[in-house]
TrEMBL record:
It comes from Arion vulgaris. InterPro entries: Ig-like_dom. Residues 249-325 form the Ig-like domain. Residues 656-683 are annotated as: Disordered. The chain crosses the membrane at residues 563-586. Residues 656-670 have a biased composition (Polar residues). This is Ig-like domain-containing protein. Keywords: Membrane, Signal, Transmembrane, Transmembrane helix. Residues 1-28 form the signal peptide.
Length: 683
């Protein structure tokens, strides 16, 4: 086939397609309109043949009736009805095809029209949709609605004189700017109270508040009828609702949180129950309430009708921290949080006294004893107060310590300087500073090794310490029995030593005794007394001077150790007889001395007066009269109440040639109250 013929046919097909589409869209094309009832409206009919006249018809509910007519020549004439005015009646007018129909007052009875070409009978059907513009809507103040578990804000608006039925569009404005909110609109219609042919519309706008944040918002509504297309003039908008503030609630802990019969200064006595109330200080909008949570986010407590929340706590609970938050349906970026940490007053349940094992109290030791009472931090809440008593004397009373140290404890250190040796009974009491009935006390003893404060004491005959001149008078050749006592210190002295010239006596215990005589040719004998102590720092000593007694000093007072020369009557007589007998023998006889063989013994004295050589005979001191047998008492060095110094006179020792100082180590004449004849008890 010739390609040119193919091209022609293709061109014809294209034009045919275009023509058919044109016919499809123009043949019987609608000229519908939307008109407001009671107002003027104009219908236009655009037909293809612009050289022919157009006339109009309306449908009266049964059939079409002419509004205008045209003759065979195409001349059209308006039928002069009261409701319509037809135009374009001149056939010469090229715009006659644009025939227009003016509806003077639109009514619901005349809603279908037809325009017809007078020559080819081309026509169009025009449907007119009638509406009644609603009155301006009125809206109520926004309210809250609980739907299921959600809280919604609800705005209800209404309008009269709507036709046909319509709808509402709500706009949510935050700070003057429209905002997208998840909403639902519920619409109801009812006959208008003003014109039953019209409708009264009521629209309810419900917005879920869970997605909203605190803001100032307003709502307005636009009411419009359902029409084929949007007609701006058919809608009516309301004014904005009064500004409504969405706000968070605020909460606070009650002033008496925690509260209870066993609560003091914010502390809860262990083993008891207390409560804390979280109150709403501002309800917010929508109104919120308070809610308690554990540290793990679990809800606890009891919700009250006023929005507050109460929490009960005991020390048996494992939760140590609670949070109170305002509960609201609004979206919280950073919710308010109030923390409550119940503090239970515990103990003290333990106490330690830290001191050294011993404390030597020597003049060279200038240190101070430090007594520390401490309570481990985990054994008491809150910090305790301490009382320290030493030997029943309060040194520290209800004083707070400090926290720290090597053992992480509450402790109080008290310096103390003992004045003398002995046992310190240290009593420490730690008391809960809030609940005084909670305390723990402990006692500990500390030995204070201290030497005696006073020097050794020589005792006088009246059992009193020697004072004044410390001179003791003794008769020539008599034996002096001395005692030295050391009291005080802790522990007691270990030994006492008396030194008189070359004589020394050391005894274990608190005292020592010694028996001495003043050496021949001397008038005085100095005696020293000292003692040993475990501290090694007892360096005090005492002295006493033994002095030969003179006749004019036979009676002494004060600290003089008196040596009595009077004896019992029987003893005195016996002594006088012996002296007289010896005197007679000496006067009449001469003493003879013989030597027997080589044994260097003296011969028995010859009392014969006929001896030719007066030096050949030996006169001896008569034998001592037989005195009642009475053994001397033993020394009891440890007897503390044995405090008497006695100087005894033995008249027979005066006849002996040995005048050296003697030490009596096994007998103690101080203890014998029933002295035998021949001994003199000092006054």
């Amino acid at each position: 086939m010739d390609r040119s013929i193919i091209k022609i046919r293709k061109r014809e097909l294209c034009w045919m397609l275009i023509f058919n589409v044109h016919v499809l869209f123009t043949q019987g094309q609608s000229c519908d309109g939307i008109a407001r009832e009671g107002f003027e409206y104009t219908l236009s009919c655009n037909l293809d043949n612009t050289n022919q006249g157009v006339f109009w018809q309306f449908h009266d509910g049964t059939s079409y009736r002419n509004i205008s007519s045209c003759d065979s020549a195409g001349r059209c004439t308006d039928l002069k009805t009261q409701s319509f005015r037809a135009t374009c009646r001149k056939t010469a007018d090229p715009g006659c095809a644009d025939g227009k129909l003016e509806i003077i007052s639109v009514s619901r009875e005349q809603t279908r029209f037809k325009c017809v070409n007078s020559q080819d009978r081309e026509q169009k059907i025009c449907n007119l949709q009638i509406y009644v513009k609603p009155d301006e809507p009125t809206c109520q103040t926004p309210t809250l609605t609980q739907i299921g578990t959600g809280t919604y804000i609800n705005v209800t608006c209404s309008s009269e004189q709507l036709y046909p039925k319509g709808n509402c569009t709500f706009t949510f404005t935050q700070k003057g700017l429209p905002s997208n909110v998840s909403t639902d609109v519920h619409t109801t219609h009812s006959p208008s109270t003003q014109n039953p042919q019209n409708f009264r519309i009521q629209c309810s706008w419900v917005a879920l508040l869970s997605g909203l944040s605190p803001t100032l918002f307003q709502v307005h509504v636009e009411v419009y009828p359902h029409l084929q297309k949007w007609v701006e003039a058919a809608s009516t908008s309301s004014d904005l609702t009064p500004p409504t503030l969405l706000s968070f609630p605020t909460v606070d802990l009650a002033d008496n949180c925690p509260s209870g019969p066993s609560v003091k200064d914010g502390y809860i006595s262990a083993g008891t129950q207390a409560s804390c109330k979280c109150v709403v200080t501002a309800t917010g909008y929508p109104p919120g309430r308070a809610q308690w949570y554990t540290a793990y986010g679990a809800k606890v407590g009891t919700n009250e009708n006023d929005g507050s929340a109460s929490l009960s706590v005991t020390d048996s609970s494992t939760d140590t921290r609670y949070t109170c938050q305002p509960l609201t349906v609004l979206s919280y970026p950073e919710p308010q949080k109030l923390f409550f940490n119940p503090i239970f007053a515990v103990g003290p349940t333990n106490l330690i006294i830290d001191i050294s094992d011993k404390f030597p109290l020597c003049p060279s030791n200038n240190s101070t004893l430090r007594i520390t009472c401490r309570v481990p931090q985990d054994k008491v809440v809150p910090q305790p107060i301490f009382t320290i008593t030493i030997n029943n004397k309060a040194e520290v009373v209800n004083q707070r310590g400090q926290l720290g140290g090597e053992f992480n404890s509450y402790f109080l250190s008290h310096p103390y300087r003992p004045v003398e040796g002995g046992v310190l009974n240290i009593h420490c009491k730690a008391t809960n500073q809030i609940f005084k009935d909670k305390f723990f006390d402990f006692e500990r003893s500390l030995p204070i090794e201290g030497p005696p404060n006073s020097p050794p004491v020589f005792k006088t005959s009246d059992n009193q310490p020697a004072t004044g001149s410390n001179i003791a008078y003794v008769t020539d050749g008599s034996t002096a029995h001395l005692k030295c006592v050391v009291n005080g210190g802790y522990p007691d002295v270990t030994s006492v030593t008396i030194i008189c010239g070359n004589n020394r006596s050391t005894m274990n215990g608190l005292q020592a005794t010694i028996s001495v005589t003043i050496p021949s040719g001397s008038t005085k004998l100095l005696c020293h007394c000292s003692a040993s102590h475990v501290t090694g720092c007892y360096n005090k000593q005492s002295e006493i001077v033994l002095t030969l007694d003179k006749p004019e000093n036979s009676v002494k007072q004060d600290n003089v150790l008196q040596l009595g020369l009077g004896v019992g009557l029987g003893v005195t007589v016996a002594i006088l007889i012996v002296i007289v007998f010896a005197f007679i023998v000496v006067c009449k006889c001469r003493r003879h001395k013989t030597k027997a063989n080589d044994d260097m013994h003296y011969s028995q004295p010859d009392f014969s007066c006929n001896s030719p050589n007066p030096y050949d005979s030996f006169v001896t001191v008569p034998e001592r009269p037989q005195l009642p047998q009475h053994p001397p008492p033993q020394v009891l060095a440890s007897q503390s109440d044995y405090d008497l110094i006695s100087l005894h006179v033995d008249p027979f020792t005066q006849a002996r040639s040995n005048n050296s100082v003697k030490t009596e180590s096994t007998t103690d004449p101080f203890q014998d109250n029933d002295l035998p004849d021949g001994y003199v008890q000092p006054i």
